Amino acid sequence: MADFVGAVDQGTTSTRFMIFDHAGNEVAKHQLEHAQILPRSGWVEHDPVEIWERTDSVMRNALRHGNLSPTDLAAIGITNQRETTVVWDPRNGRPYYNAIVWQDTRTDSIAAALERSGQGDVIRHKAGLPPATYFSGGKIQWILENVDGVREAAERGHAVFGNTDCWVLWNLTGGPDGGIHATDVTNASRTMLMDLETLDWDDELLGFFHIPREMLPTINPSSHREAFGTTRASGPLGAAVPIGGVLGDQQAATVGQVCYAPGEAKNTYGTGNFLVLNTGTEPVRSQHGLLTTVAYQFGDSPAVYALEGSIAVTGSAVQWLRDQMKIISSAAESETLARTVKDNGGMYFVPAFSGLFAPYWRSDARGAIVGLARYNDNGHLARATLEAICYQSRDVVEAMEQDSGVHLDVLKVDGGVTANDLCMQIQADVLGVPVSRPVVAETTALGAACAAGLATGFWQDTDELRTHWQESKRWEPQWSEDQRADGYAGWKQAVERTLNWVKVEVP
């Protein structure tokens, strides 16, 4: 039996291939960034061809770095930036347009029109999502309506849609030469087009967006031995390796953090923050601005659902300090700079660059720095940026507790920002609960590997996976209740200042 499982992690800023052993330890990886295309304010795009080329390269290089061959892999999994939308010609693999990224806000008028018409309530009930620029449905509609010839091509069967999991899978399994056009329930649940009860595309929802059903991929369980096919020998692995699992990135992190029981939760700190709470095999309809989504489905078992709070800008706010404000030269320096001050000095930074996601869902919001005094300096701005990451997470935790009745005893965390010890201490202080980081911090890729390994028998069950999870570090709250309450009150005031900044045109 092969000794390793691989995972493609196709993210917002980069693509990587990671290889894990039976204990869930990383044995090799390679990672490459891709361009962020910003044609105008609020628009964010990626080049799908560049993403596929990066995927090909990182798979080849990870094997080379690990001195491994494809026959050493029992299976591979795929995880991805979820709502990012690709429409391509299946005859030749050429995209009709750049991928429209989940952060993109060009579809705000589509979302507003759905809300005004009352169709938003139908979408909430069936898909578990509010009408928002975040999700794929509006992005597909925009491409069909604004890119010449695409609607006609779709009606002839010459234009298909997929999030980046689907795009990578199709290319890995042959592309124009028999590539598999499929996705999993977690990615499908992020489109506004899938019924959470039936786990299938819904004709009424498709009608709201004027999307031909023939464009859409087959929906499969997240972990399945046959559903996703095998890599082509002519591809980057140079051999036929089973593709055993596909999961959207935040659901993959939920699996990697072994949140398999109702009430278990994790928070992933990446470009944005994504807090996911396992709610079991029945969907919980949010009344407080959260998303009802599919957490995972393994084989023929029932789907497991979750509540999710999605935050658009957290780690990317630190990138903004580096790339736009140029007050730091690396993300790690944000901690050093923030430690030069003892608190935020009364300054709050709300990084609503593309509106506010959960629990507010306000596309009219824009970023604001408030409470400034002449006393404030770069250290206070760095501290306020780290606090913004943590306060936005508290907004979601508050909503999650109201929806589910579950009070967190501990928050499991993962992702790049968790390397920032000060930020994680602030998170524990802001929430008033311990924060726990695992030994394997890259749980997104690990979760995809787990799904693939379960499908192929590399791991027997989730109980076995639990035995491999280990805590690396824990942060205990240090703030008093008064500090916590005062800080959060100031944050809520700052959020109010960001609203009604942009006028959303409704057709």
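[next item in queue]
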Amino acid sequence: MPVHGTIRYWAAAKAAAGVAEETYEAGTLEEALREARDRHDARPEFARVLQRCSFLVDGNPVGTRSHGAVSLTEGGTVEVLPPFAGGAR
């Protein structure tokens, strides 16, 4: 079931999205990211940056879990963290 929350973009993800944060209506992280990619489809760099990002959901690292298995909570927060300091993931 879809819930509402906030996606916060940091560093290169913020630059690629053109916004610092926006809302989502989704049940899983996979759905929220799909919604974000669709919203920013005119910004091809956004999809490329997302491929390299790490994610926190309500402060908890997603790690290697499938994004489709990560449930979102009402009023929750997804943090989109690109690699910092030029490091590779």
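[queue empty]
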